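Lab manual, section 2.4: Encoding a predicted structure.

Procedure: take the sequence of the chain (150 residues), apply the prediction step described in section 2.3, and record the output as C-alpha cells. A sample record is shown.
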Amino acid sequence: MIHCKPKSSTYFSLLIVIGILFAGLVYIILDYSRYQTYNFWFYLFSASLLTVVLLVILVKMMAGYRFISAGKESFFVKIPLRGWKNEYRLNEVLAWQEEKIIANKKEFKQLTMVFSDKTSFSMSNHEHTHYEDLVGYLQKKLPKKKIKTS
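Recorded output:
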C-alpha cells in the first residue's frame, strides 16, 4: 500500500516563515502604537501586506494538507481539515495527469487525478511523500486514463 502524506519539512519551513511574518506584523503594530516612527501610510500598507501574505500562506497550507493512499485496487483520500474521507475504486478514476516543470535546475512535478464524482486531487513531489510510487502505481494500473501533455 502506498501512503502519500504531506512532508513535515515543507510544513516546518512554512511555519517558520509564518512565525517571521507574524513577528513582523506585531512589530509594525507595536511600533505604531508606541513610537510612530514612520508615516501612517507606511504602517497601513505594511500591516495590510503582511496580513495578506500570512493569510495566503495559511490557506495554501490548509488546502494542501491531504492524505492519499493507493493499493488493493482502490484509492483512499482523506482531508482532515474538512473532516472528509472517501474511497475510490480504480474504475472510478476518470483521468490522471502528471505535469513537469523545470525551474532553477530542479524538476517540479504535479499529479492531478479526477474521479467519477467530479472531484479532483492534486499533489506535488515537493510537498508529499511517496509521490513517485503513486505515479508508478497509476502508470501500471491505469495507463489508458493518462492525459498526454504536449
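Check your result against the sample. The chain has two domains: 2-63, 67-145.
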